[in-house]
Amino acid sequence: MLKKISFVGAGSMAESIIAGIVNNKHMKSNQIFVTNKDNKERLERLEVKYNVRCTTDRKVAISGADVIVLSMKPYDLTAAVEAIKEYITPNQVVVSVLAGVSIEHITSIIGKDVPVVRAMPNTSASIGYSATAIARATTITEEQLDGVIALFNTIGTTAIIDEKDMHIVTGLSGSGPAYIYYLAEALEKVATQSGLDKDIAKALIMQTIIGAGEMLKESGESADVLRKKITSPNGTTQAGLEKLDEMKFQNAIMECVKSARDRSVELGKNK
b vs e for 173-195, b when ≥16 Cβ sit within 10 Å of the residue's Cβ? Predict the structure, then answer.
């Protein structure tokens, strides 16, 4: 069981993970430390909201932590690690949630033989529904890895992947919630434009998305099989799908994921 976890960086991803850990009672709030570059107002807000321990004292934040989560922007990585690396010890695990930045590069900045893990959660972590991919360094022990997996299991589901697959995972599940929200926005717009009450439309859309996700999870059937089951010949669903095909909907989604993947690659090169 982890006794202390420290977040370096206090942005939206850090907050989502913190919220998930606190809400699921995986750790006590006073076991969670947060520090950042210089935004004291942000630290104060997190401290009030989650009762976690926020500090600008890097030594206090890092010393004695079982896990150190790097959650700053990729371009702030070098400066952030330089500011804390003297307090990092080999028995700690460094977990990076930064898009595009390799384990090798992070290790080189730390300059010590410290186990590094890359994780790509998403913001659904805040309600315990993240899909988190984890890539491990060869130096991490099974016990340490189990601790990291247990941590991320408290905020959703986890999958162990090869590091080479992290870019596509970033574009897929890391950014994925935004694509779903964008779809929901479009559905809400057409519903209200057609005269449906906004609150009723939102409730129907939310349940439709949740239900479709549960069907994919529980039925054991593929997405194309489930789609075909509700597509009657010459029916309303077929009419809608034909329009999506005409507008090249699937191609747009595939290119969307590829663009996010390519940006992850760029971030890794421009770190």
Answer: bbbbeeeeeeebeebbeebeeee
Give the tens place of pLDDT for each residue, 87-120.
999 999 999 999 999 999 999 999 999 999 999 9
For residue 55, what are the CA distances in angstroms to 7, 34, 45, 187?
A: 10, 6, 12, 43
Over 90: is that where the pLDDT of 62 sits?
Answer: yes
Exposed, middle or buried, 204 (CB in 10 Å: 0-12/13-18/19+)? Answer: middle
- Which residue type sits at 174? G
- Overall CATH class of domain 5-169: alpha beta
Q: Is CATH 1.10.3730.10 correct for 176-269?
A: yes
Distance CA 233, CA 213 (A): 24
DSSP state of 90: T
pTM of the model: 0.88
